[in-house]
Each structure stands twice: as C-alpha cells, then as structure tokens.
Design brief:
Largest sheet: 5 strands, mixed
Strand content: 15-25%
Radius of gyration: 16 Å
CATH class of the largest domain: Alpha Beta
Number of helices: 6
Strand order of the largest sheet: 2-1-5-3-4
Order of helices and strands: EEHEEEHHHHH
Number of strands: 5
CATH architecture of the largest domain: Roll
Length: 161
C-alpha cells in the first residue's frame, strides 16, 4: 500500500496561523474540520451546491468543499467560529435566534457567513439583494422568510449603531 504524500501547509484561520501537513488533494473543509478542529464548517453535498461549507476567504463567501486546502495558503480564512464572540453571540447570530431563523442548524454557519459578507459589502442591502446573496445556501428545515427577516433586522441594528 502506497503512503499518501503530505506537504507542509500554512493557513491563516480566524486570525491565527496554523502550520500543518496535509495531502495536496484534501479539501479546505476537511482540513478545517479534521486537522484544525473547526467543526462549524459543515460538509453537506460536497459539490458546492448546498452552501453548508461556506467560509470567508479574504472576506468573500467561498465553498470550502470545492477548494483544496493548499489553494488557501496566503489568504485569510474566516469560519463561523471566527465571527462568534468569546462570550455570547454576534449581532447577526442574535438576530437569527430572535427571529427563529434556524432549526437544525446544519446550514446556519454558511448562511451566517454569507450574510456577514453581504452586510460588510452592502450595509444597505434590501430584501431582494439579501435573497439573491442567500440563494446559494440551502436549508431543508425551514422557510427562508425568517432568515431574511433576521438579516434585515441585523442590517437595521448595524445602521443604528
């Protein structure tokens, strides 16, 4: 049986440097979950369709199941753990809780990161723009109205702050 080749890999995740050894064929999602231990990045379809594996790569939503970990070297990666305060919830997470915008929670990290990126790029996003941004994130448990309501409320809270 052949031994799988591993290479040295440096990833900058949630503001911390991680020095790893990984196979060149491992996805970013697998490295985040199984080597770094950031299990908030969920793997659903493994085809980039569901959005559960979404992370922010240099602030932009990226499907980590479609990206080799080696491709992420030199980029800033943010996972849901990176937007969660040490104590409590972020304003967007709190809005999701207040608006009942989640059920099982499997899709929630990807949706949260997509919404974070949208509000960072477009703090005045309207409902249509929010729906368009979230259209690549699938939720099998709930309707999307509560999710959209939560993002709209977080947008208002950011504007008022």
């Amino acid at each position: 049986m052949a031994v799988e080749q591993r290479i040295g890999l440096t990833l900058w995740v949630n503001g911390k440097e991680h020095l790893l050894e990984a196979s060149p064929r491992w996805s970013l999602a697998d490295v985040l979950r199984h080597q770094i231990g950031l299990t908030g990045t969920h793997v659903g379809c493994e085809q980039g369709v569901c959005g559960a594996c979404t992370v922010l790569l240099d602030g932009q939503p990226t499907r980590s199941c479609l990206m080799f970990a080696i491709q992420a070297q030199g980029h800033e990666i943010t996972t849901v753990e990176g937007v969660t305060p040490t104590e409590g919830l972020s304003p967007l997470q709190q809005s999701f809780q207040s608006h009942h915008a989640l059920q099982c929670g499997f899709c929630t990290p990807g949706i949260l990161l997509t919404a974070e990126a949208l509000l960072a790029d477009n703090p005045t996003a309207d409902e249509e723009e929010i729906r368009a941004a979230l259209s690549g994130n699938l939720c099998r448990c709930t309707g999307y109205q509560f999710i959209v309501d939560a993002v709209l409320a977080a947008r208002e809270q950011r504007r008022d702050a």
